[in-house]
Write a structure and sequence with these properties.
alpha/beta, Arc Repressor Mutant, subunit A, 50% helix, 520 residues, five-stranded parallel sheet
Length: 520
């Protein structure tokens, strides 16, 4: 168990949030004997990596809570699957089949993938499947089920009684035209099945009914048992109230919604949950990742090229800073994961609480010794023409005879990832520099200098020889350009791992031949 003094001192964000929950929600937690954390999912598009990030980060807060209290914790993953389909997603098949179902609840729309009863159910199952891959502990809740089962009925009755007060909160935030038609309640049309956004004519509070103006015709609907659903901001507040949520994360784009939902839940008679606004995920163009567009890297793509732990670490770091999520950032994320594991082996308890890998592994840090970075491994895969894991291991063991697969399970898996990533991503973007005469002379001088090196030398000693060649061949004032030349000519990239370290694995003789082949 972690010492209490170190928990008090640490400023790692999961512990900061955990302490805030226990402080701000004490009376609610004591009353129900449980801490409830919620994550939300809008299943109008396929689950994306941002959805995973929200559950991963919330799970890290649960881990921190577990070191602070023995009170049971529960993560509820809530799917807003009764929402109406606003537009047809770009990344689904049989799009023409969805055209006639716009504005209908997602759970009333046929599955374009033709696997489940509805489009909403399909996306819910996709969400559960990939959360299960990571062994997350969560309880799934469906908006459709909770509305139709009557679970939300007691809260809906409070909301209809507070109708005027809720309107006074929402209307000032809307434009004049929208104010004329806005209603917190959205009836399900008995004729078309669509979720209607139409104005209210009359409130029948005694019978829990509302009379709407449906294009000049009166439409009377009960607000109970799924006959109506709520507009987003009111719906969010209702969820917090009915489920008694103690904590929820949300994207920066929902801060204004959270402010309004906070006012509404207080109107209903409870305090808002502790909140945490994180920055958004962006694609390589700097555009927000969208589940309907399917831009950025997908969960499956990341897991094809790197471990689940590397993705969790990416989610841990700087949650309040915008992050670009695309295939080319994978090697950097993996290398950072490896570096934090290596650092963790010599850190004290207080330092470990600030180590992202500690949070990724729920406090059970791997003890594996570091062999090489993912970036260097990619270069080794390329230069060795390795298509199999066995061939890469053969190269590694050629000069490092005391390294065994059984002691390096992380690295063993890393080799498979590196082979896939090189063949499917790196190979397509390689641009090898054609050196000019002066640059060829400098690289030939490097080949000559390597004659004085051998495979038993320390990587740093080989690196010193490379520095010396650069200084003697016109790069004394800017050694960065010297190494950039080597990377661009030999590896087809602008930067990479320390060359001396690479040579110590690849071999001096093999490296000399590699350079000769590239400049010939």
């Amino acid at each position: 168990m972690i010492e209490k003094a170190n928990i008090e001192k640490t400023n790692s964000w999961p512990f900061v949030e955990a302490k805030k929950i226990l402080r701000e929600r004490k009376k609610y937690i004591d009353k129900k004997g449980k801490i409830i954390l919620q994550t939300g999912y809008g299943p109008s598009g396929l689950p994306h990596i941002g959805t995973f990030g929200e559950v991963a980060r919330t799970s890290m807060v649960v881990n921190a809570l577990s070191h602070l209290t023995e009170i049971p914790k529960e993560i509820i993953t809530f799917s807003d699957d009764m929402d109406g389909l606003r537009k047809i997603p770009e990344n689904v098949p049989n799009q023409n089949k969805l055209t006639n179902y716009l504005h209908k609840p997602l759970t009333d729309i046929p599955d374009p993938f033709e696997k489940y009863k509805s489009y909403g159910e399909h996306n819910n199952e996709m969400l559960k499947n990939f959360l299960n891959k990571f062994n997350f502990k969560y309880t799934f809740k469906s908006s459709t089920e909770l509305y139709k089962s009557g679970f939300f009925n007691p809260t809906l009755k409070i909301i209809i009684k507070k109708y005027s007060d809720i309107m006074n909160i929402i209307l000032p935030t809307l434009g004049k035209e929208r104010q004329k038609t806005y209603s917190p309640f959205l009836p399900i049309c008995p004729e078309t099945g669509a979720v209607l956004e139409i104005p209210v004519l009359e409130i029948d509070e005694k019978n829990w009914k509302i009379i709407f103006d449906n294009k000049g015709k009166k439409l009377e609907k009960s607000i109970l048992d799924g006959n109506c659903k709520l507009q987003w901001k009111v719906d969010w507040a209702m969820r917090w109230f009915a489920i008694d949520v103690d904590f929820e994360m949300y994207g920066k784009d929902l801060i204004e919604s959270a402010i309004l939902s906070t006012k509404i839940i207080k109107l209903l008679g409870k305090d808002n949950p502790a909140g945490f606004a994180y920055e958004l995920f962006l694609d390589e163009k700097g555009e927000k990742i969208s589940k309907s567009k399917g831009n950025g890297i997908t969960i499956d793509e990341w897991l094809n090229y790197a471990s689940p732990e590397s993705l969790s670490l990416f989610m841990y770091q700087n949650p309040k800073r915008a992050k670009k999520l695309y295939k080319e950032i994978v090697p950097k994320a993996v290398d950072e994961y490896l570096e934090f594991i290596e650092k963790g082996q010599s850190q004290n308890e207080l330092q470990l609480l600030l180590n992202p890998a500690w949070h990724v592994h729920n406090g059970n840090m791997p003890k594996e010794k570091f062999i090489m970075s993912f970036s260097m491994l990619l270069n080794l895969v390329e230069t060795s023409n390795a298509e199999t894991k066995d061939l890469v291991w053969k190269f590694v063991k050629k000069y490092k005879t005391k390294i065994f697969e059984k002691d390096h399970k992380i690295f063993d898996n890393l080799i498979e990832y590196a082979i896939k990533y090189f063949n499917e991503v790196v190979k397509k973007t390689k641009k090898y520099k054609k050196p000019n005469k002066t640059e060829i002379n400098a690289l030939n001088a490097l080949i000559v200098a390597l004659d004085n090196c051998n495979d038993q030398m320390e990587p740093e000693d080989i690196q010193t020889q490379i520095y010396t060649v650069g200084k003697d061949n016109g790069y004394k004032e800017n050694l960065r350009d010297w190494f950039k030349l080597i990377y661009e000519v030999v590896f087809g990239v602008e930067n990479g791992p320390r060359i001396g370290f690479f040579i110590s694995f690849f071999g001096v003789k093999e490296t000399k031949q590699l350079i000769k082949d590239k400049i010939s």
